[in-house]
């Protein structure tokens, strides 16, 4: 039995969910209000003891197992959720080897050292005569003693080896200090000197509140750089860290909104003045890992940028493209052709440019309501970028019109929601005074070309996984003789999708293109209900984007906790000959559709059960509407399934007829 299975066997999902959600038993299930969104009058959050799963039939439209609930609730990745639940269940995750035991011991030692260093710096700030100048600086910035204590601000002495000597006397080695990033090596390689000298020290913490590194602000005018960070260490990865997230997480979860600013002091000032959902990006731009971290917690992401940064077109454009990294959900949309599924972002990135010459502290000093008004009036990234481009273009000239089209049309092509995409083109045509048909032709000139499957994107491994066992599934209202009776894509089918992607990394992009041309969103993380499968798919998304995706690199990315499962997925296809890439992508498209059909069937059955156990007419009406929506979604998926099957048969027939003709010539 795997660690995940053993944890599930020992823990009841009802007990874990009930720690944070008030549940009421209804029939065989438990219902409550969803902890992940607000403003709902119907208890649309359901826990199913028999299957040990949960589902939100409201705004989240999400569900899964015990692990996915904890990951969503805490903002954890799978590894963090696994360790938390293993501790709760009393499960030993792995037998420590001498190597892993040494690594764990070193990591624990580094965490102790960083915590001790934070205390050392803080004591120097609050009690030493040398810290008087820094205390005066913080008083000038109007930081209270409570704020200084909450963020454990500190001071580094203006000496070369003060910290080094302090910790050497307490039993730490130069190698320990170097591994923690607290000292640097000399040019000759000898034990180094203190990294931080005569600076305001700002401890950086992980999501659990543990010190993993430091930011240091210069106190003298001639000091460069103004801000100096800890280097990359075993504890600290700047690209995956958001400053202040440990303190802001609760407020972000409750408000559904995160505000991202540019600096440490902005975060500290915001929290002191009531902006408890504010964090800071580490670096000049928001990274994919940072985005993934906050996407688990917030429904709305707002960047409060100063006027200089807000005017940086490259930064704004990169953020508008980053929209594609955010999780998506599907909605049934009425169109002239019937009900179609559209992909909609669960989160959107907004830009709140600060008044010229002001930082967050200046705005907050005017009152929290002034700050909140600025945040509430933030514009979606793409709207902001459009305004920026149009303000830079001389629309009275052909060259200016061309500039606007060149800058904006490529970004419009990245929008998966066809309604939003065409609406933006129509609006742009009106603003710049061009015929809408001209812009639509430009939009579609490259939009529907399939992504090239480059030779160097072929997998380093070959073969195709056998299809999973598929017991019969009867969708509601169908008989066993119905031509629509589908195979049951359960957790085994989730793994089948993952194995197909490993078979040929390029298949994911091709399969998604095939589905999106039919108006169906591509495979996304919400299609996976098992927490471990979600984590593997998250890494696969990154892995398939590599120039030469190799299996050994993927094994390194997912880590030891999931290597066994990854090896199991690889073994499904390892013994088979390599199939054509077209076959893999076609199989993957079909597997995705079967997976979603099963999910919809489950949701219809679950909602029907809820209808039978509720006496509230309003709740019953809500459940009925949701059932009808799912039935419409099912029709769309079935239509797509038939369409892709027909395309596949026609291609096979074309190949059969073309071979003898070519032979005769």
Q: What is the number of strand segments?
A: 21
Question: Class of the largest domain in CATH?
Answer: Mainly Alpha
Enter the CATH topology name of the largest domain.
DNAb Helicase, Chain A
Q: Strands of the largest sheet, in order across it? A: 12-14-13-15-18-19
Query: Average pLDDT value?
Result: 80
Cα-atom Rg, whole angstroms? 28 Å
Assign an overall shape: globular
How far is it from the N-terminal to the C-terminal residue, by CA?
60 Å
Largest sheet: 6 strands, mixed
CATH superfamily of the largest domain: DNAb Helicase, Chain A
What is this structure's SSE topology?
Blueprint: H1 3-10, H2 13-17, E1 24-26, E2 29-32, E3 45-48, E4 53-56, E5 63-64, H3 66-74, H4 78-89, H5 98-127, H6 132-140, H7 145-150, E6 154-156, H8 162-168, H9 174-179, E7 183-184, E8 193-194, E9 199-205, E10 211-218, E11 227-229, E12 242-243, H10 245-255, E13 257-261, H11 264-272, E14 278-281, H12 288-295, E15 300-303, H13 307-310, H14 313-321, E16 328-335, E17 338-345, E18 348-351, H15 360-365, H16 368-376, E19 379-380, H17 381-392, H18 398-413, H19 418-432, H20 436-447, E20 472-473, E21 486-487, H21 491-503, H22 507-517, H23 531-543, H24 551-558, H25 560-574, H26 581-612, H27 617-664
Helix pairs in contact: 1-4, 3-4, 14-17, 17-18, 18-19, 18-20, 19-20, 21-23, 21-25, 21-26, 22-26, 23-24, 26-27
